[in-house]
Description:
By secondary structure, this protein is an alpha+beta fold. 35% of the residues lie in helices and 20% in strands. It has a domain at 239-349 and 361-435: Major capsid protein gp5 fold (2-Layer Sandwich). It has nine helices and 14 strands.
Amino acid sequence: MGKKIKELMAQMEEKWKGIRDIRDLVVQEEREFSQAERDTIEKSLDEVRVIEVKVEEERKDQSLMDQIDALGKGLEKQRAAAQEPEGQNGQPVRAKSFGQQFTESPEWQAWYKQNAPGGRVPDGAAGIHTPPVEMKGLLAKLLGRKELLTGVSAVSAGAFVESDRTGIYETLGRYPLGLRDLISVRQTGSDTVEFVRQTSQITQATTVAEANVTTFAGSTGEIEGVKPEATMRFVRVSEQVKTIAVWIPATKRALSDAAQLRGLIDDELRSDANEELENQLLNGDGVGENFTGLNNAANVLVQAFDTDIAATARKAITNLLINGRQIPSAYLLNPQDWEGFDLLQDTQGRYYWGGPMAQGPRTLWGVPVAQSFFQAQGTGWLANWSKMVLWDRMMATISVSDSHSDFFIRNLVAILCELRAAMGLIRPTAFVQIDLTSGS
């Protein structure tokens, strides 16, 4: 291993140690990654990928040099084995090897001087075509013709030109998730979570005059002076922990030969499980193992369409304040509905919300706006989102096993991602479902 490769590998080891320390701390504290930790890990992974590319380039350069040296030695042996002509003094005239003829030719020297500043072809060079060089050695005599060693042919110098394998891969991408950042997230160690919801509150307070009799008989002028008794009611609500899972088969050889494949699979599986979690939180129908999502929850407030989407969104605030007795923390909208608000204009063509050059936080009537691709277009939400609670029984984890079916004897493994959680609306009236479609 060359000195340069050792230095690069040491840099990779240092980056990995930093990533591993963060991971171990998160596992030890049984929590999620903070945003700062996520940013640090993503930056370190990007730097590791860059170093991997450099290591691969150094290895390819070393391999290329080894092949060139091997070719020169092999040709030299062939030349020595062939009958050598005598010179003027009776001494054998040593013919130049193919490698020498190629590298010492005027055509190659001129091309190399122009295209390899500093003695090395740049890493980013594309479309490399070396000039044809006439070869006058043993092979030409055997074939009865002149041979040209070029950088185009795969059986000539082109055999030494390797593609630059960058190590970059680009995935199809995933929907950004926004709901989990709005709601309350807690932990549970049970398969069932319970909470108590108030169904009626104390509303009996009133003014009371001082009593003027010891025994109240109801006669004119008598004041009993009795204070009103208050009542309030509660209901116990139980929510079951649900499981969201997805797995993919893979060969042990594929995971061993392609180091990046395992990380790609893990990321894809986790992303798919977390996407389904957000979909369930919003759209689960409560049937079987499905969550009862917000769009199918009972006793939430409703705001009908009124005049236009801007007026409707504003009336939802009043609805939540009066009927829900809550201060809104955010709107949740489908991205296409949020686009509709952004493009609203007055009669003079001016954008209500500042237009494309607007700066600052994105708000609607002074309330922050979050977006979710899993919220159906035409319906939005305004809420105090702390009143929706997600209980994490087990965050998305990855496990690998060859015990599925006949995977053991076929050198296959199942890579499984699984999460378990429960969701409940502590106060349904803290949520207003907004109809953003005229005439619906």
